[in-house]
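User: Could you check the structure of this?
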Amino acid sequence: METKSNQILDLTDYANAVASLESRYLSWHIPMPQVKVSELSFAELVRTANEHGLFTESYEAWSNYRKMRNITSHTYNEDAAEQVLEIIPAFLKEVKKFLAKMQENLEKVKNASAT
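Assistant: Sure, the predicted structure tokens are below.
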């Protein structure tokens, strides 16, 4: 997809960044000694993130974001592209909420270690 500045918008980078941040946060801050976060399924990861207030959207919404990302990677169909375009605003809103929560948690960690 072309943006106004004629740059290609690749949601794969955003999705990968969110998954990486989520996984790192969960592995650092959530006591789950019996489970390695890296071994959680996508559904378990989203459920756990929701339980800890990292995501506000449901598993179904995140599953749909993932499906749309996969569509962008494997198709040049205009109808599929339109379908993906429709979900981008909701995805970006959720990612911004996630980023804000991660920044809030980072500040808490910094403040705790400074005292």
